[in-house]
Amino acid sequence: MKLRLLRVDLSARNSEVEELDQSVIEKYVGGRGLSSKLIWDEVEKGTDPLGPGNKLVMAGGPLTGLPVPSSGKMVMAAKSPHTMGYGDGNIGTQASVQLRKTGHDAVLFEGISEDPVWVHVDDDEVVFKDASDLWGKDTYQKEDMLYEKAGKNIGAVMIGPAGENLVKYATIMSERGRAGGRTGMGAVMGSKKLAAVSFNGTQTPYMEDEQRLRDMAGDAYQEISDSEDYNFWMRQGTMLAVQLCNTNSTLPVRNFSEGIFEDAERVDGKAMESMKEGKKGCPNCNMQCGNMIMDAEDEEIELDYENVAMLGPNLGIGNLRQVGVLNKLCDQYGLDTISGGSSVAFAMEAAQKGLIEEDIEFGDYEGAKQLLEDISLRRGIGDQLAEGTKRTAKQWGNESEGWAMQIKNLEISAYNCYSLPGMALAFGTSPIGGHHKDSWVIAWELENDRSSYSDGKIEEILNQQRKRGGAFESFTTCRLPWIEVGFNLDWYEKMFEAATGISQTWDDFDQLGDRIYALVRSIFAREYGKNWSNAMDVPPDRWFDEELTEGEHAGASLDRERFMDMLKRYYDRRGWTDQGVPSSETLKELGLDFVIPELEENFDL
User: Fold this and answer.
1) What is the pLDDT of residues 182-204, one digit of tens each?
2) Fewer C-beta neighbours within 10 Å, C or N terminus of the chain?
3) At the topology level of CATH, where does 430-599 sit?
4) Angstrom distance (rounded) from CA 172 to CA 239
5) Which residues contact 449 (CB under 8 A, 6 or more apart)?
């Protein structure tokens, strides 16, 4: 089996196909693994992430688009304009399936188009289409126009005004609510004047043993639907986390200043169920996570936990239909809901403390709507907030960096960690910044001595990072069947072999995860050079210097000394230096010898 990489030069408006041999699959698999290797190889240190030298990768994996559970994902990666290191995100959409049906496994975009362009990949044909009529439209409008021009069978991704205006946390969007790349992948598309990408394929993606794969698929889907937790998952999906977090004082409330929200019952899973209109999911998924309700403007919107928590309790808003409108605005503008919600909350707190003159306060629904629009269009203070909370805090001063809720510039997802050392460490060591996806250790931590700084927590974080952030991001399939309903991991060994003809075990996949983490970390270290330190992995001061004041965990905060010791032990387990840089020995063991010369310029490995 070979990987087919479609290379698209937007400056010259031409394309070519490169074949990558089986050794690349064995070592990097696809998705995040392949993307991180391409970014290391092709994006030099110091490259302007919004300049022509940056490369944007859209990569499926060997299971993407195949008849196996939740295989409708692809990864989008580039040097991040938000974190200035490796950035990526995945998206579940027909575009992922159609990409592989064109006969390609990944697409790499380079250069910058002189004028707005829409790239359409129709099997082996790559067409560069004028996108001047798409530019300036929101993502809903763009998608309707794309379907009208190219037909309903295409899979398409696009940016909205936030990406066109180079908002640092602009996303790539698809199918009215499917979002990916909160590290600013939408801004990278915008910088390249790439308004949209669509795929239309007629080919069957490669399967080494198609009959075996199809035979096992029925049993695999059945195992998921027979799960004890399946029915409840289908009722609430990720929205179950609102009650979980509020009960345990870990909900983000008013810019993470508290962990319990007085109106949580108005925005939790039960409230959502009472309004529910239907469900929505990715291709090839039988446990859809998207819950549809009618928002306050009587339009249908898809909700999940992160969006609701960051645009609801974190803003002091306890009306789920209003939260739906804020979520819809982010989707239409192509604005990340996590960073968008965090930025609005930061502005609300700044106004409360007199740092800015704007009249916006927690609970101000109309003010939040206006500010999300101002961020997306870079108007007024929205222009500053479009740069992210850390950069904005440097401008606004008055110690506001301590409550700019970010790590490595990326705003933290919706889990408040005053009393969760393990989840705080998972955020700190996420490969892309303050993100939950790679190690959602909160549930394990709540059941296993939540307040400890133990080696056991470190081991569980590593286990989850290897699987969630390594294997699943490279297969590329959704992790939720395993996480939420207990789908047996053994299936992935069998499915991978039937798909590729390559026999690998979970020991191999865990090493893949370690390889990816070391390579992504090396991209960050190479970029930051002598400015890199373990401080890059430390959460904001708020969790250390302030305390929860409500509920049974009142008085809780993180212990800085114990956290730093825990971080060091994490580095030791990974084989990284005290600065958090992979050692030369570790790099050699993982087959990353080629990384060593560039890192040795600034680090004692």
Assistant:
1) 999 999 999 999 999 999 999 99
2) N
3) 1.10.599
4) 23
5) none
Closest-CA residue to 281 (of 201, 221, 194)? 221
* 542 pLDDT more than 90: yes
CB proximity list for 32: less than 8 A, separation 6 or greater: 59, 75, 77, 88, 90, 469, 470, 473, 474, 476, 516, 520
Degrees to nearest 5, angle at CA 558 with 552 and 564 = 155
**Contact 483/440 with Cβ under 8 angstroms?**
yes
The answer to whether the beta carbons of residues 192 and 12 sit under 8 Å apart is no
pLDDT in tens, 482-536: 999 999 999 999 999 999 999 999 999 999 999 999 999 999 999 999 999 999 9
Q: What is the largest CA-CA distance in the chain?
A: 66
What pLDDT shows up at residue 379?
A: 97
DSSP class of residue 466 equals: I
- The model scores a pTM over 0.85: yes
- The residue among 162, 81, 137 whose CA lies nearest residue 376 is 162
CATH topology of domain 227-416: 1.10.569
- Those residues whose C-beta lies under 8 Å from the C-beta of residue 575, and which sit 6 or more positions away, are 582, 583, 585, 586, 589
CA–CA distance, 92 with 60 (Å, rounded to integer): 11
CATH architecture of 3-200: 4-Layer Sandwich (3.60)
